[in-house]
Amino acid sequence: MDAVRLIVTSRRALAAGGGVPDLLTEVWQAQALAQVIGSRLALMGPPQLRGEATGLADLAGHGIGVLDRPPSDSGEPRAARLTELGDTRACLMHLGGLLGDVGIALVGIACAADDEATYWSCVEAIDAADEARDRVRDMLRKLADREAALPRREAG
Hints:
Blueprint: H1 3-16, H2 20-44, H3 50-67, H4 88-112, H5 116-155
């Protein structure tokens, strides 16, 4: 399945929510997807994005680690269904939206947390999602800069 379809699926599942365990599972799924996309971009994406893509994968991995919550079903993570990235810009735009949704969901979970451990793991995961989203924005900016430079090179 292509990245945009998986991201849209993740956004819908996160929006459908449910209880805290379901939301945490969806946040985990989204972070796992961001990690895989970052890893693929680091290996096969445009060369100017590879550093930020590695950072994205690392940050999403940290977000997974602090939540320590594998999916509730015994099947593979949604990210395992990723077969292609498709258009890099579209993928990154949708991923940025997903990471924003992740941050919002985590804020809600943290505010309702009954214990400090859940609260602090959510705070760390919020930071990881926010920093990952910053990486996505940086990659989108680099893509825009590259595209703006192309017409200047062709005209010169």
